[in-house]
Specification:
Shape: elongated
Largest sheet: 5 strands, antiparallel
Order of helices and strands: HEHEEEEEEEEEEEEEEEHEEEHHEE
Radius of gyration: 26 Å
Oligomer: single chain
Length: about 350
């Protein structure tokens, strides 16, 4: 009996100590678990893990049932093989969030500006795209990554959980084809590349820490790159270090001009429209075709459907695809004396090859 009592006493002391650490100041407690988070980026159209190639920085946020309790930032790219982030946290249930590539030279901000441990809640945390005057964004954004796991960590655990990341940044290329057949150049309603402006508008500039968009004033995306010379279309790659993209040669004829506008926008989500607008800078009063507006979310869903992709998980399709292209064809209408939309085509950049090149149809 005496031996039993002597055994129970230290166990009770340990339990009291553990209780004070869980509910008290974490920084005063010694590590009671051996727990770490590793990462992978396989949610794309390829077959490899691209985490080590694409992710340059990781911001990690740990929330308990109520509040933020732990943050850490790791910027070690290129990472060592089997890279992981150890977390010195006690036993408990946690919601762990990662944002990748929130780089200092990128227009991103996480608010509140100063997260307060023990006060900032998961519901209050926001990820925001910084914008200039007029709610405008026209930056070429680095790939932004998001990941989350819910972890139940028992006492004395020794474990590494792997978090799967998704790319929250999408590149959209808008290509305008102008067919000048029959055009009278003296007509004031003639449209040329320098008379047109292209923009996108959506509510996808603010996300909560569950990676769902937060209703806010729509942000207007302007192209970060514009080309009308044909060089980007004919030769590729468009910029050193980026993927090579070829275009069909039938875009180049004596009577056709082709213009390219490159955008990067934040995560596209089903049920959250992103509107593409093409308009003339100075619209003629007699021109009823001076404005074209298309919901590209619906256009891309149509593209998925037409190309045999499963409709059961459309959001996952949006998250997996990084590159999109939308072609507009404008034909000159002699009777109307202006241009009309002759057709719209949506393609994934990765399947576009110029005839005669490897992989072309």
């Amino acid at each position: 009996m005496i031996r039993y009592k002597l055994l129970v006493l230290p166990v009770l002391c340990l339990m009291i100590f553990m209780q004070s650490c869980v509910h008290g100041d974490l920084e005063e407690c010694p590590p009671m678990v051996s727990y770490a988070v590793a990462f992978k980026y396989t949610n794309h159209t390829g077959t490899t893990d691209r985490f080590y190639d694409d992710v340059k920085k990781i911001n990690l946020y740990v929330f308990d049932e109520n509040n933020l309790i732990y943050t850490t930032t790791t910027e070690l790219s290129p990472y060592d093989t089997n890279f992981n982030i150890p977390l010195d946290i006690p036993m408990g249930n946690y919601h762990i969030i990662a944002w990748g590539n929130v780089l200092d030279d990128q227009p991103f901000s996480v608010t509140p500006a100063e997260f307060v441990k023990g006060e900032t809640t998961l519901g209050e945390a926001r990820f925001i795209l910084e914008r200039i005057a007029g709610n405008l964004s026209q930056s070429e954004l680095e790939k932004l990554f998001y990941g989350e796991i819910e972890a139940e960590i028992p006492l004395y655990v020794s474990r590494i959980d792997t978090m799967s990341l998704i790319n929250d940044t999408k590149r959209v290329r808008v290509v305008l084809h102008w067919d000048h057949t029959g055009e009278v150049r003296e007509t004031e309603d003639v449209i040329d590349y320098d008379e047109v402006q292209v923009s996108m508008k959506g509510s996808n500039a603010v996300y909560n820490f569950r990676n769902n968009f937060v209703e806010t004033n729509n942000v207007t995306y302007k192209p970060y790159y514009f080309d009308y010379t044909g060089g980007i279309l004919a030769t590729g790659p468009e910029r050193p270090g980026e993927m090579t993209v070829y275009y069909y040669s039938d875009a180049f004829t004596e009577v056709t001009n082709t213009c390219v506008y490159d955008f990067t926008i934040l995560r596209m989500m089903t049920g959250s429209p992103v509107t593409l607008t093409i308009e003339r800078k100075k619209k003629a009063v007699s021109d009823p075709y001076g404005l074209v507006t298309v919901d590209i979310i619906e256009s891309f869903i149509h593209y998925f459907n037409e190309n045999g992709f499963s409709t059961s998980d459309r959001q996952n399709l949006f998250d997996k695809h990084d590159y999109y292209r939308v072609d507009f064809y404008f034909n000159y209408d002699k009777l109307a004396g202006t241009y009309v939309t002759g057709g719209i085509k949506v393609l994934d950049w990765t399947v576009i090859k110029q005839p005669g090149t490897p992989g072309a149809d």
